[in-house]
Amino acid sequence: MRIGLPRRVFAQVLVMQLAIAAGVAVLATGLFLAPLSDQLDDQAMRRALAIAQTTAAQPQVVEDLTATRPSPGGPVQAEAERIRKATGAEYIVIMDERGVRWSHANPAEIGKVVSTDPSQALAGREVMEIDEGTLGRSARGKVPLRGSDGDIVGAVSVGIAYDSVRDRLISSIPGLFAYAGGALAVGALAAYLISRRVQKQTRDLAFSDISALLAEREAMLHGIREGVLALDRNGRVRLLNDEAQRLLTLGPEAIGKPLDEALGEGRTTDVLAGRVTGTDLLTVRGQRVLVANRMPTDDGGAVATLRDRTELERLGRELDSTRGLIDALRAKDHEHANHLHTLLGLLELEMYDDAVDFVGETVGAHRATAEQVTEKLHDPLLAALLVGKVAVAAERGVSLRLSDDTRLPDRLIDPQGLVTIAGNLVDNALDAAVGSQDPRVEVALHGEGRAVELRVRDSGPGVVPEQRELIFTEGWSTKEPPAHGKRGIGLVLVRRLAERQGGSAHVGEAPGGGAEFTVVLPEALTEPDLAHAEERP
User: Fold this and answer.
1) pTM above the 0.70 mark?
2) Cβ atoms within 10 Å of 432's Cβ, excluding its own
3) Are the CB atoms for 110 and 103 separated by under 8 Å?
4) What is the pLDDT of residue 536?
5) What's domain 313-535's architecture?
6) Which pLDDT belongs to residue 247?
7) 263: buried, middle or exposed (CB in 10 Å: 19+, 13-18, 0-12)?
8) Rounded distance, CA 394 to CA 397, Å?
9) Burial annotation 274-313 (CB, 10 A radius, 16+ → b, else e)
10) Which band of pLDDT confidence, cut at 50, 70 and 90, is reported for residue 2?
11) Is the CATH number of domain 224-308 3.30.450.20?
12) Which CATH number fits the domain 9-168, given the four candidates 3.10.20.30, 3.30.450.20, 3.30.70.2200, 3.90.1150.10?
């Protein structure tokens, strides 16, 4: 049965670190012991050479070598034994120039030729070696023996038992293993502490579980239809899923960049960076209305989620438009009922001529209003919008009229966008004018060349200069939120729609008081054709 690694990360990391620590200890011990043997050999040979040099430097040894004959009781043997015992050498052999021993640790060997080659020493060279002789393996040092005139008269060979060197090596091994064991114990303790920390950080999951979680996370992040953006503690983009790239119009190259650099300045950056706090914060990125939520993480970073609310906002505005239409129909129904009651009374009083005149005046008034709008506005969408707004304004007690200089040809490139802009501004103007002394709203639309200018004036309290730029920021509103969501988006979309066409939107003070919103769209109309050019006065 094959024994594999344990599944838990804690156990795997501990086993691997213990194996590494043990391997390092064994390797370090081996690397220390390998050169130690060579070092001890070198020390032994140098010691033997030094003893040989000291012996050769004795003048009495040279005199006795030349004046006496080799014998176990001779002066050369006595001096050599004295030095041998004093230095602890295994042997000291003094030989003449023929290689005959004059001293030896075994007196029986005196007078015999040496067993190893003495030619190098007799030639004047010093020799260090480990060799095999009559006394076994030893570390040797050989030096020439010179007379008073400098001539070589013999040589000195000193040997140190090799077993003593090996004993020193063997005796040092237990100490080395003790140090290695201590280092291994320290490494095991460090491995245990590191493994415990890894266990806490990985929540005691197996490596296979972590790998599966990462794969599932990648699939989930790139598969969900919510944008997910993660930031590190320094505010750099750490993660950006596919939906977040689409909603924020960013590419994969934004990962690793600071958020301010990747997105640029604006409310979206402030919301994602945490400089604007709250839940379900609305922000506009391009033409999209986004809902953002931000959650800090333990490492100082944060994770933000983004939901696309553009469609929901569009449906909410369509609901507002539908409600406006219902209000207009209700106003018309109420007005129509009053007219019918009046007509019924005239008929019951048999005032038939007055009844005919009343019907004519009523129909003519409605027709005049519609004709006045369609005569000045040739675009059917805008004309229908303002006709409906006139009825709503009348129901709310506000006078809504077109300025005398209103002229708009039927050449709009984006009529739906202009309807959105005009509808938002007129609704805001009606809300502001209600309750004023002389409630009125005036709309001016003028097209010239390819440019369109829209002005909406009201008789409300106006906008103080300090807030004239603030009202175009997301989330700013003086009204209660509607049933379908939050306010603070309408004027932002007005400016964004204007800027998309290269135009602008700003607010100022209307003549006579109130606010005047002006939107300029320099590229809102198509080029006039030849027929239009001939019809132009």
Assistant:
1) no
2) 21
3) yes
4) 42
5) 2-Layer Sandwich (3.30)
6) 85
7) buried
8) 5
9) eebeeeebbbbbeebbbbbebeeeeeebbebbbbbbbeeb
10) very low
11) yes
12) 3.30.450.20
Q: What phi-psi label fits residue 485: left (phi over 0), alpha (psi between -120 and 50 degrees) or beta? A: left
| Distance spanning both ends of the chain, measured CA to CA | 102
- Containing H/E element for 453? strand 451-458
Identify the residue whose tokens are 């944008």.
Answer: 227
**Residue 377 and residue 119: Cα distance in Å, rounded?**
128
CB 418 within 8 A of CB 521: yes
CA distance 48 to 83: 12
Q: Is the pLDDT of residue 404 over 50?
A: yes
Tokens at residue 303, please?
């994770």
Reported confidence tier of residue 520, pLDDT bands at 50, 70, 90: very high
Q: Is the dihedral of CA 278, 279, 282, 286 positive or negative?
A: positive
What are 65-79's pLDDT values in tens digits?
888 888 888 888 888
Contact of 331 with 395, CB cutoff 8 Å: yes
* Alpha carbon distance 406, 207 (integer Å): 73
pLDDT in tens, 503-515: 889 999 888 888 9
Q: Compute the distance between CA of residue 392 and CA of residue 441 in angstroms, rounded to an integer.
A: 12
pLDDT digits (tens, 9 = 90+) for 96-121: 888 889 898 888 888 888 888 888 88
pLDDT tens-place string over residues 182-195? 777 777 777 677 76
Adjacency order of strands within the sheet including 504-509: 399-402, 440-448, 451-458, 515-521, 504-509
| Cα–Cα distance, 217 to 204 (Å, whole number) | 18
